[in-house]
Amino acid sequence: MDEKPFTDFPTLFDDTLCGFSRKLMGLFHVRATERTERLPFLLAPQFAACYEDVLRRMVLPAMRTSRHIQQLGVNYNWAEVGGAKLIDIIQSGEVNNPVLHHWDARWTAFKPKGRKSKPEDNPWPLFREDATRSNYDPPDEDDLVIMQDLIRYEAESFAKAWREISQLYEQEFTPNARQEQAREGAFRDGLMKWTSKLPDHVGELFAIKAYFVFPRIDGHFLRRLINNFGRSDAERRRNAPYLLSFVHKMNG
User: Fold this and answer.
1) Are 195 and 164 in contact (CB under 8 A)?
2) Is the pLDDT of residue 176 over 90?
């Protein structure tokens, strides 16, 4: 992640968290596809810009008013240690983590409370408007946790997973002259392996991405794949809600 020259801690704070989120979401993005179905929000490049707008307007400024974050601003020579130190702090664990504590508090404020939210605590209309304009499926309150967890994820492990998934697709479905063709089901098994290793929902989102970017992955493949996530719809909804919803929408 390229860093801009240091100006001040608030700028570094905002740019670092936005940059990390942008890099992470880029691993899910589908940039060109011949498929006609609407992309789930995390797969839509346009959503990343809207998410960053919400961070800069509704999340990060409120975090920086806290005493803990202001103290963090004077604890280090930020011109020297840079944004990488901030990412280290974020990923150092949940205990006594000032950034994660205030990050979580801001996202919790976005939960519906049975009353009208203050404008600064209500990103949902912005998400819906952008999704309508850009033709993707918007997030709603049920998706809050996955958006909240984005800065907890490790971009390198996600990138490694997608590289292996892509290689397995090539080896099974389109091997070149120098490759030995992978056995039938190798791609599916690779997807399921990474689903068990990665945080909740990441594997199923990669499965949906595969549908959009790999020509040989079709609706029939996804309908069979969803059966690996449970024996009933209730179990599948618990284990793979995004994939199940996507398959149901495909079936019309």
Assistant:
1) no
2) no
Averaged pLDDT for residues 211-227: 96
The Cα–Cα gap between 189 and 72 comes to 44
CB count within 10 Å of CB 39 equals 24
pLDDT band at residue 116 under the 50/70/90 scheme: low
Question: In the structure encoding, which two tokens stand for residue 156, read together?
Answer: 């390198």
The band of 181, judged by pLDDT with boundaries at 50, 70 and 90, is confident
Asked whether the beta carbons of 20 and 151 are under 8 A apart, the reply is: yes
Which residue type is seen at 225?
L
Instruction: For residue 201, give the nearest of 130, 249, 148 by alpha carbon.
Output: 148
Q: Give CA separation, 56 vs 50, 84, 115, 238, in Å.
A: 10, 19, 24, 32
Residue 180's SS3 state is coil
Q: 163: which 2 tokens?
A: 């590289």
Cα–Cα dist 72/155, whole Å? 24
